[in-house]
Amino acid sequence: MHKGSCLCGKVKLKITADLGSGDMCHCRQCRQWTGHIYAGVDVPRGDLTIEGEEYIQWYYSSEKVRRGFCKECGSSLFFDPVDQEKHKWIGVTLGVLDSPTNTTIELHIFTAEKGDYYQILDGAKQNKH
Questions:
Q1: What's the rounded Cα separation, in Å, for the pair 93 and 25?
Q2: What whole-number percentage of the chain has pLDDT above 70?
Q3: Per the structure, how many domains does the chain have?
């Protein structure tokens, strides 16, 4: 089991599944949303329990995706495809999870949009889009 929370602790989460590999998104939207890059892991919806859902604010960044954050402290929490029938998973930001996560980053996406102030040097696969 994995546990985590937002910065203020109003939103707590538990994941009963083992975590798969994570990914990092370098697109402009993710960089603006997180203040740097999105590092997350996809979790089956049925394996995620959320306490404090009333503190989650959802922002629809497109017709296909909404992003969840704590409306009290602003912590970026979830990357959620709107079509939940098609997508049986929800993205959870790795930074909110307590260690150890026992996962690694396997993929970087939208690297063509990455910030000019850092390099990607971990050897994981990179997709420009």
A1: 11
A2: 100
A3: 1
